Every structure is written in C-alpha cells, then in structure tokens.
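re: ur question from yesterday

yeah so i grabbed the chain u mentioned. its 76 aa long if i counted rite. heres the sequnce exactly as i have it in my notes:
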Amino acid sequence: MSEHLALPGGTGDDLVRCAAKVFATSEGRRLLDHLERTYLLRRMPPQASDQELRHLEGQRCLVAHLQSLAARGLGR
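ran it thru and got these structure tokens back, copy pasting raw so excuse formatting
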C-alpha cells in the first residue's frame, strides 16, 4: 500500500501524523483504550445473527485502523 494515498482529508502520511497527535495525549489514549474495550474485546453470543457479527467486525476494523495509524505515527 502506498504511503501517499489519495484520501479525503489528506495523504496517508497526513492522517498518520494527525492520528499520532490525537492519540499521543492522555485523553486520546483513554479514548483508544475505551474503543478497544468496547469493540475489539467484545464477544458475541453464539446465537448472534450474521448481521450482528458483520456489524461488530466493521467496528473492529475501524478501531484497528485507528490503532494502526496512531502506532505508525508514534513510531511503534
């Protein structure tokens, strides 16, 4: 994947820097921790519908993407 993606709101590098700036603060880390606990660590019951599982997976994908951007921007 190119480091200079044509994305709304800036290049990939711009977004990496932005995420690092936001999530480097104590408030940003608190928010990212909350998102991880709420979505990445959430378990669905066996009777969950396909729609519920897909919805949760989309949420997880978004949180993982934010974590990845922040980690790249912070040099992790």
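noticed a couple things. Residues 12-73 form one domain. also The chain has a mean pLDDT of 87.
anyway ttyl
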